[in-house]
Amino acid sequence: MTVLMSPDELEAELRALGAARYHNRHPFHQLLHGGALNKRQVQAWALNRYCYQAAIPIKDATLIARTEDADLRRLWRQRLVDHDGMAEGEGGIVRWIALTEGLGLDRDMVTSRHRALPATRFAVQAYIDFVRDKPLLEAVASSLTEMFSPGIISERVSGMLASYSFITKETLAYFNARLDQAPRDADFALDYVKRHARTPEQQRAVIAALGFKCDVLWAQLDALHHAYVLPGMIPPGAFGHGGDWS
């Protein structure tokens, strides 16, 4: 790509990439949403996903610290409030912990992250490193997977409620707020990228940044599928290795 695209053409490229590579297409998610997993496998998903949830405000604080644009800092810090809350006991991370507890997992085990898959931890750290090290425009663009999250949230909630007797609306309460938060955040980030990607090189970079983020999400599901769907593949130390699910 050597020709500068219009902002709308850039958006179309980003949306096409997400349609092809977003993790709603992953076999593990199709099993999860379709009711084909057992409770242990769902627990493993929730425990590992906590690593990603806990990293979101860290990467957002990293992005805020990098910019001298006060408007960007003001708007982006709402993401910290969404995940950390304004006080103890509030925010998305607390709601995700409630999800894991609703599935019967021990809070300390979840929050320690010691029983998560190594590949999960590596993928999450790669995302934090990307936001810290790449140009700010690419760091913002890496968040654009949120353009596609309302669809997967709707699939997840409806599918899991219909398929699993051990899942309730209260268990999945985390996702209620995200149906409003994710589109708001995606709209801002998309507008920012369309305004600031002013050269073909910058446009290629923001498309690649979205591709990288899709890879981060896909890699986490690859790890879950490899460990918990394929028999005998749970790595030592991870949740469920050797029959240890505690």
How would you describe what is shown here?
70% of the residues lie in helices and 0% in strands. The mean pLDDT is 96. The protein contains 11 helices and no strands. The relative contact order is 0.19. Helix 1 (7-21) runs parallel beside helix 11 (200-228). The N and C termini lie far apart (51 Å). It has 246 residues and is an all-alpha fold. It has helices spanning 7-21, 27-33, 39-66, 70-84, 92-102, 107-112, 118-133, 136-141, 149-163, 174-196, 200-228. InterPro entries: Haem_Oase-like_multi-hlx, PqqC, PqqC-like, Thiaminase-2/PQQC. One of its GO terms (biological process) is pyrroloquinoline quinone biosynthetic process. One of its GO terms (molecular function) is pyrroloquinoline-quinone synthase activity. This is Pyrroloquinoline-quinone synthase. Pathway: Cofactor biosynthesis; pyrroloquinoline quinone biosynthesis.
Which key features would you list for this structure?
11 helices; PqqC; pyrroloquinoline-quinone synthase activity; 246 residues; 70% helix; single chain
